[in-house]
Amino acid sequence: MVKIDRILLIDDDNISNFLNVRLIKKLKLSSEVKIANNGQEALVYLKEVKSEKVPSPSLIFLDINMPVMNGLDFINSFKNTRAWHKKTVIIVLSSSENRSDIDILKESNLISDFLVKPLTEEKMQEVANKYFRKQ
């Protein structure tokens, strides 16, 4: 069975976060899931992780539309600290299918994939198998 060390959900939708955590636990894919309600909270968390010398999340699900710091701004800030997150898989999980947002995110070369909400068991299994199955 595929295991993902740490997962970070960056989304301001509490219902989506609750359901996503529940799904991840049901599938027993990860024992550690952290939630950040916007990009700024996520950056603070990632800086704390770095300062405590704890491994960074293996997987980040990132929403695009959030208050305080949206997904695009998060990626721009995250790029500057990418050196210590080389193995982090970032997947945009959003209800937004705005083509210009997706194109901007693709240009960053940090995004591994794009999924449209909701996260389902099938989508989660596909992510786990595609990015975390040991070769």
Q: Can you describe what's shown?
A:
The structure is a single chain. The chain has a single domain (6-132), classed as Response regulator (Rossmann fold, 3-Layer(aba) Sandwich). It has helices spanning 14-27, 39-51, 71-79, 99-107, 121-132; strands spanning 6-10, 32-36, 59-62, 89-94, 111-116. Helices cover 42% and strands 19% of the residues. The chain is α/β, with parallel strands linked by helices. It is globular and about 35 Å long. The chain contains five helices and five strands; from the N terminus they run βαβαβαβαβα.
Biggest beta sheet summary: 5 strands, parallel
Relative strand content: 15-25%
Classify the secondary structure makeup into a structural class.
Answer: alpha/beta
Level-1 CATH class name: Alpha Beta
Order of helices and strands: EHEHEHEHEH
Strand order of the largest sheet: 2-1-3-4-5
Cα-atom Rg, whole angstroms? 14 Å
- The general outline is globular
Helix content: 40-55%
